[in-house]
Fold this protein.
Amino acid sequence: MTLWNRCIRDLQAEIPEQQFNTWIRPLQAVEDGGVLRLLAPNRFVVDWLQEHYIERIVEIVDSSDISAKVIVEVGSRRAAPASSSTPAATPRPPRAAPVLTLFPGAAA
């Protein structure tokens, strides 16, 4: 079981389902060399986690057999690169720019 999966398991048992789904489930975790990096979709989620859940996450990490520093930041994991056996997508031709029509007396 990964460190983040252990955190998820414990948090899911401790906090209401709606709060778990709102604040914990959207996080992406990257575990790398003694660092558990939690990637949040936006700054608001980062701030909320720092205020409400980071202490508990750190407690869970500290109680594990793995020593890791916890970092919470805005970001997302990069998608895996497409393999060379996957055909490249055919580019679409550019679309014409939309036309804005103003009627007399209408404000822009």
User: Anything to note?
Assistant: The chain has four helices and three strands. The two ends are 58 Å apart (CA to CA). The longest helix spans residues 3-14. Residues 67 and 77 are 22 Å apart (CA to CA).
